[in-house]
Write a structure and sequence with these properties.
The complex is a heterodimer of chains A (386) and B (202).
Chain A (H helix, E strand, L loop, with lengths): L6 H14 L2 H10 L11 H8 L11 E3 L2 E3 L4 H21 L4 H10 L2 H11 L7 E4 L15 E5 L2 E12 L6 E7 L7 E7 L5 E5 L10 E11 L17 H33 L5 H29 L5 H25 L4 H4 L1 H9 L10 H14 L5
Helix pairs in contact in A: 1-4, 2-4, 4-7, 4-8, 5-7, 7-8, 7-9, 8-9, 9-11, 9-12
Chain B lengths: L11 H19 L11 E5 L7 E2 L7 E5 L6 H32 L1 E2 L2 E2 L4 H21 L6 H20 L12 H14 L13
Antiparallel strand pairs in B: 1-3, 2-3, 4-5
Classes of the chains: A alpha+beta (386), B mainly alpha (202).
Protein name (chain B): Acyl-CoA dehydrogenase/oxidase C-terminal domain-containing protein
Organism (chain B): Streptomyces eurocidicus (Streptoverticillium eurocidicus)
GO molecular function, one term (chain B): oxidoreductase activity, acting on the CH-CH group of donors
């Protein structure tokens, strides 16, 4: 598939692939104890995640490979990086400190001063974990309907409400919270929250798999928010911040999430080949069929990410590739368990972990049902299959 | 309760004639002036192109089939399989687009059926299968196995699409007749010679 990628992307991919070697043991450790990431911060993959989407001018040693310097500001390069790290271990990748989705939101909405403060903190010597607080207990990820409130309070605001299914929130120092300042879609804001502030509480939610994501529930009880912590408040019109920022961040990040699912899928298919090199007949053809679907989905994901880099954010295609990737990860792990024989999940702890991890992608950044509605809109408008 | 039944823009006979012409174009691409014969000796083309064949049941007199001893060479078969799958994709896409138009016109309980989430999900499922088939067919180094898998996925998506038409999808006048021909052609040209070897597929 290299022939379809530009040279700088191929060099980046090969570099990250090297850094992802050996992450499986680390991933198994994190699956047993999600706080184990604290003991693994010396690994090269952690440095990659810490610098991902932080502009190079903030980094003391930005990633350089050959003649190129990278900050993963490109959706394609970000996607490739995450796919390769997820081939190593998706749970490990998600447990790492760094900007992840919050960085995309700050990059899209923050003013110069906000971005500067955010990137300075992320590039500092101490590892900083972040979160992206959108999903709510009663409303899911429907950004236009969220109920967390931002209420004027003296010369600032107070933040009240609850968020659920937020990665890393219980371990983070900093995050973006989407909230409602006024009724209607223009009343949505995104605010930067320091988790040390009074009124902020977060607890991990135990999950079946992908424990490195450290999915959490947040309670916001009168958290003080200064005006300068509202992203883009002084520089963007209400119609260009808040809700728009949530949607832009989700769409920019969906190929990255698809890359996570596809990295895991590739690891699973390679694992089956390594464990059953003599697989033949119908079983071999079944594996070949899944490999075809994986190759096709990867190619399509790169095309969608490249289109985003070119300024073409097509909601229907973004939704389609996320759906395909998430479903393929589940299909591949189900097939792997069958192809490796009875009790494979008990005999093969790594497969068992991948099998559990793969179930997460359906629920991350919009379920398959929600994505299908976006695909449908594309069919109705005649754009999806064009 | 359904209160409106939409009319197709062209007749079923027109659609079948257009399909037969498109099938002949697939033959022409692989064997100029002739017909492609499957590994098991079967050929299916329009009645005009395959004058001495027997009418294909359910082809409404537009397609004919013939059995003979000699299969086409691998190069011709490979080119024909690709052309056939493209025809299958185009046909299914037309069926899907027509279903969307039809369901937007049909009402149930005072609202278009197209507004139902279950319907929208089924439309999306078919579209996702079409996109996936397109991407898999673009992969390098095509094989007969891959072509058969794509055919199978398109058949499954086609059955989903037909459910959007209700009982109309089962009539000879409806889109079911066309999709049946794509299934028949896949059964003739794309199925593996040893069905036992396929046992255990997803």
């Amino acid at each position: 598939m290299s022939e379809r990628l530009p040279e700088r992307a191929v060099l980046l991919r090969d570099h990250v692939r090297e850094a992802a070697t050996g992450l499986r043991d680390a991933g198994m450790e994190i699956d047993r104890d999600p706080t184990a990431i604290d003991r693994l911060l010396h690994l090269p993959a952690v440095a990659l995640m810490r610098g991902c989407t932080v502009p190079v001018e903030y980094l003391s040693s930005p990633l350089r490979v050959g003649p190129y310097t990278y900050d993963m500001g490109s959706c394609l390069e970000h996607t490739l990086t995450i796919e390769e790290l997820s081939y190593g271990d998706a749970g490990f990748m998600l447990a790492c400190p760094g900007p992840l989705m919050s960085g995309v939101a700050v990059g899209a909405l923050g003013d110069d001063k906000q971005r500067h403060a955010y990137y300075q903190r992320l590039a500092g010597p101490e590892p900083t974990w972040t979160f992206f607080g959108l999903t709510e207990p009663g409303k899911g990820s429907a950004a236009a309907e969220l109920e967390t409130t931002l209420t004027p309070d003296g010369d600032g605001f107070r933040l009240d409400g609850a968020k659920r299914y937020v990665g890393n929130a219980a371990f983070a120092q900093l995050g973006v919270v989407f909230c409602r300042r006024a009724p209607g879609p223009l009343g949505i804001e995104a605010v930067l929250v320091d988790t040390a502030d009074p009124g902020f509480r977060a607890e991990p939610i135990p999950t079946v798999g992908l424990r490195g994501a450290r999915i959490s529930a947040i309670t916001l009880d009168g958290v003080r928010v200064e005006r300068e912590r509202i992203l883009g408040y002084d520089t963007l019109k209400p119609s260009r911040r808040g809700l728009v920022g949530a949607i832009r961040t989700l769409q920019r990040f969906r190929p990255v999430l698809a890359g996570t699912a596809l990295g895991l899928t590739r690891a699973v298919l390679d694992h089956v080949r390594a464990e059953r090199p003599a697989l033949a007949g119908a079983a071999r053809r079944r594996l070949d069929g899944l490999q075809d679907l994986l190759d096709a989905a990867r190619w399509h994901n790169y095309a969608v990410a490249s289109a985003i880099d070119a300024g073409e954010v097509r909601a229907d295609r973004v939704a389609g590739v996320k759906t395909r990737a998430a479903e393929l990860a589940e299909r591949a792990t189900l097939a792997a368990a069958e192809l490796l024989g009875p009790a494979a999940l008990l005999r093969d702890p790594w497969l068992h972990k991948a099998y559990r991890d793969a179930r997460a992608f359906e629920f991350m950044e919009g379920t398959g049902h929600i994505q299908r509605l976006a695909v449908f809109q594309g069919v109705a408008k005649g754009t999806f299959l064009r | 309760m359904t209160v409106q039944d939409g009319a197709a823009p062209v007749t079923a006979a027109d659609r079948l004639a257009a399909f037969a012409a498109a099938l002949d174009a697939c033959h022409e691409r692989a064997v100029p002036g002739g017909v492609v014969v499957s590994r098991t000796g079967w050929a299916v083309a329009s009645v005009r192109r395959l004058g001495d064949g027997d009418p294909v049941p359910d082809g409404s007199g537009t397609l004919a089939a013939r059995h003979g001893p000699r299969a086409s060479d691998e190069e011709a078969l490979g080119a024909f399989r690709e052309a056939l799958l493209e025809l299958h994709r185009r046909t299914l896409r037309d069926v899907l687009d027509a279903a969307v138009s039809r369901l937007d016109r049909r009402e149930s309980e005072g609202a278009p059926l197209l507004g139902r989430q279950l319907v929208r999900g089924a439309v999306a499922d078919v579209a996702l299968a079409l996109a996936q088939a397109r991407d898999v067919l673009r992969l390098p180094r095509p094989t007969a196995d891959r072509h058969h898998r794509v055919h199978r996925e398109l058949v499954a998506a086609g059955r989903t699409a037909l459910k959007l038409y209700g009982a109309f999808g089962f009539t000879a006048e409806g889109p079911g007749a066309l999709l049946h021909l794509t299934e028949l052609l896949g059964d003739t040209y794309l199925c593996p010679e040893d069905p036992e070897a396929e046992a255990g597929h997803e």
